[in-house]
Amino acid sequence: MSAYKITPLHLGTITRPKKNFLHGYTGSEVEDFPIIVYHLDGEHKILVDTGGCAVDSEYGQRFQPYRRPKDQELDAALASIGVRPEQIEYVIFTHLHWDHASCNELFPNARFICQRRELASLYEPDNPSSKGGYIKDYVKQFSYELVDGDLQLFDGISVVLTPGHTIGSQSVIVDTDDGLTIISGDLITLQESWYMDPPRSSALYYSEEALTMMYESIDKLRKISTRLLPGHDWHVFEPGMGLR
Ligand SMILES: [Zn+2]
After folding, report:
1. Distance 3 CA to ligand 1 centre (A)
2. 97 C-alpha vs ligand 1 centroid, how far in Å?
3. How far is the CA of 132 from the centre of ligand 1 (A)?
4. For the residues of 155-184, what is the DSSP string, one character each?
5. Is 153 within a domain?
6. CA of 1 to the centre of ligand 1 (A)
């Protein structure tokens, strides 16, 4: 197996109620949460997601509170780890929401990979999954290689369909020197929810049926690994990426 090194990149900060990010949580705190892109370095140079749009764009205004200083723009964050955007060979999207898929134009040499169901939903205006957090006109400009369900993409890199946050959300399974590590997108946004017994999903699901799908997706991931990197958690920037 080919092992990859995972590096989380901090790409700006959103301010949101914590209860959005932890299903069943009833506290009223409003907190800062990071937007995160994961860089995977191994046989291939891969990004998982591309982060949010420009803060001062029309859409950046729509998704306030959101801020992103210059050094947290994706090209600057990549430069800080010695990577140029043109070196990226693949971008694997957990899903196509605005905070995960808005810097795609930086990667002229990359092939973009997402679930067929995720992209298709953007052409279905009545689909409850496609309401909300998408910048549809923007993400539709790009070409994607479409995956149906679970697939090993390369030696050491697989995707598994884990719907519920969106209808076509997927998780990325990365072989590392410390074992298989899951990048879950917004199925799990906080590490603490993964470590609860039993684990809890984020509260960002698009219907009651989707909530059931969230927990089915969690069950699927638990059979794969205990190591999980979530969608919006500061702990991933700590040594060991907050993994227990
Ligand atoms: Zn999302």
Report:
1. 27
2. 5
3. 9
4. TTEEEEE--SSSTT-EEEEEEETTEEEEE-
5. yes
6. 30
Q: How close is the Cα of 96 to the center of ligand 1, in Å? A: 7
pLDDT for 244? 86
- Exposure of 71 in the CB half-sphere (CA atoms within 13 A): 2
- In sequence order, the 6+-apart residues with CB closer than 8 A to the CB of 214 are 23, 164, 165, 187, 201, 202, 205
Say what the pLDDT of residue 20 is.
96
Q: Which H helix or E strand runs over 194?
A: helix 191-194
Token pair 């697989």: residue:
158
Tokens of 79: 């430069």
Which pLDDT value is given to residue 178?
95
Would residue 241 count as lying in a domain? no
- Our count of domains for the chain comes to 1
Give φ, ψ of 5 to 5 degrees. -100, 130
Ligand 1 centroid–CA 7 distance in Å is 20
CA distance 166 to 34: 20
The confidence score (pLDDT) of residue 177 equals: 96
> Which range marks the domain in which residue 27 is found?
5-236
Residues with pLDDT less than 50, the chain: none
Residue 20 lies in a domain: yes
**CA–CA distance, 84 with 68 (Å, rounded to integer):** 20
Give me the CATH number covering residue 123: 3.60.15.10
The verdict on residue 205 lying in a domain is yes
Q: What tens digit of pLDDT does each residue of 89-109 get?
A: 999 999 999 999 999 999 999
What are 139's two structure tokens? 């993400």
